[in-house]
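Dear support,

I submitted the protein below through the web form. The confirmation email said the job was done, but the results page showed an empty box. After a refresh the structure appeared. I'm attaching both so you can tell me whether what I see now is the final result or a partial one.
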Amino acid sequence: MLVSIAVSLILLAEDKKWLYRTLVLIYAMSLPRTMGVVKKTTMTTFHFDEGDQRKCGTKYKGTTLLFTWISLLGMSLLSEYLVEFKYVTNLKQCAMLFACGYVGQELAHAITFEKTYQQSYMSSSKSEKNLQNWQSLLIEHAYFLLPLCFDALWQTRDVPLLSWIVAHNYLLRCKLTGAKETNALRDIYDFVSKENPSRDRTAHWWFEKLKGKTKKAFDTIIDSEAIAGMFAKKFRSDAWAVEPIYSMNEIYVASSHHNFNSDTVFYMEHCDGPWSVYPWCFVYRCMVAVNENKQVETIFPMEGSGSCLSDGDVVGFDYHREIHIIRDLPTRNTDRRVTMKLHYVVYPRCFGFLGRFLAKLASFYNWAARNLFLNTIAPSNWFWKFMAFMVLFVTRSVFELEKRAGLNSIVAVVLAYYVGKNFIHEHFFLAFTSYTHYCMYIATYQIREGINFGTFKRNVVFFKTIALCHLGYNYFIKYFEYDLISLAMILGGYSLSFSAAYALGVDQTYFGVELGECAPNFVDGFPYNLGIPHPMIVGSIVGLLGFHKNESFREHLPYLVPLHCLFYLVHMVQEHMYDIYKHDESATTIQTTTKKKASSPGMKSSKRRNSVSREKESEQQKKQHPHTNGTNGTHSATRRRSTRLSPTNDRSPAWARD
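What the results page shows now:
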């Protein structure tokens, strides 16, 4: 809509583009004052500091203004491009473009059941005598449309734009403690005890074949308020639908041992379903512990957690994407391990047809796999033994792909290559896969809540590897010219960068501290003892500039390296703006080792103690704590914790809250 208006102005101005550009410039220059960035707001209806984050409103004004200016510049360039290359040649086409934009906006609100902001103040003004009230609000709304969009973006906590590329933690947990649920679990246990299945193999009872009291008890657990509340914490009930998939539900009894049969798959890292690339929707498997269990531990390696589900414990995980495994502990159960497997499809309410279709796909796969598993639990001939082998082989293969790269990432890369090569531009694939990991860094650092650490590391390492392969292929194979200085810069820069990453360790390099996965360790060894600030970012940029120095490489790919450096710069600025290590006199102190953890991947700093007083403090503490900590022989050191790491701050990492 805004682009169509801009194109109309350009067409009306004809050859006098300076008139259009002057109007855009006047509008851009008026925003700092009207938004209250420079002086108190003159248009008082929209304050840009209201809502759930009232205290943060002023903080986001500058960022909102900056992105508004960037958007204005982008729209101006796009509008002039459309006119110059005659994609839009008259006002009639502009009107059609505006109509398409307006209808698309209204359609988006309709399918998401969301009321427009314009409706909110127009409907409230109808009962007022002053009919001009809503008209003035409409003018002001149009004036502030762009900054309001960005202001809403920064202050949205549930589904911010950045979260689309963040590796969210979709594990859900709760416990059934109500009398109704407890009685239902007891009925399920009594049913299994009465059936008395063999202990040397797993036993299954499908929900659809249950009868009477047992089926009623199963229904009680499916409709449990505790499970509904567990989903509601992750998926807003007004935006997401959660529906049971009855055909997949079952009562499951574990075997006392697992030989080379399909039971062995549960003791391998695996994903349960094949539809991991299905967009926007989820199928959840909820494991419900019916009785006491102190032997079998359910582990989720990507999230980094595991526990024995016992007596009403419930864990829900993505059936098609979450890697998990069960392992036996030294302690032994005195009774069978009885669990219920509940399944739910979760989908956005505006995409109900997609969610219901995924439920059918998952149900079909479960039916096919169920028949295969039943015949391979105790294979009776060579054919079913071969099928048992195939179950294990396919499970292992899918797991390796999911763990090392992620099927979603693989499909995205393949699609980007195909679409770019055939429909867009030969360099589209290069651009798409060269900078994705930076976007993941920036988005994850900004959000930091509810992140699946293992999945995040997997994704960024996968895309960073592709980015480095692009650089290496284009430099050493496609456009190679011998340049000693260039080669020396590449070797020296990346040696420094990889040395810094090795000193920090993988977890700390990839936001381990910021995400609460580990406590900060402060490194004094190489390369942080060279006096080079930010050795990881300095090394990476030197290496990148080594690529760029090659004349042939630079001639054919002039923007590749500068954009790498720009993304590094953006993330470095982000780190300094939201530095979790900022000192605060009101904060408490924490004990950490002198093995240093810096702020983020690709740009870690040693943050040395420069003052004499701190050196004295360190010496004094050495005397108070003469014992070494760990195998490296490093002593304990005191460090200030910022208010961002306060135990009362919900956004603090777990180690800070503890």
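Response: this is the final, complete result; the empty box was a page-load delay. The two ends are 50 Å apart (CA to CA).
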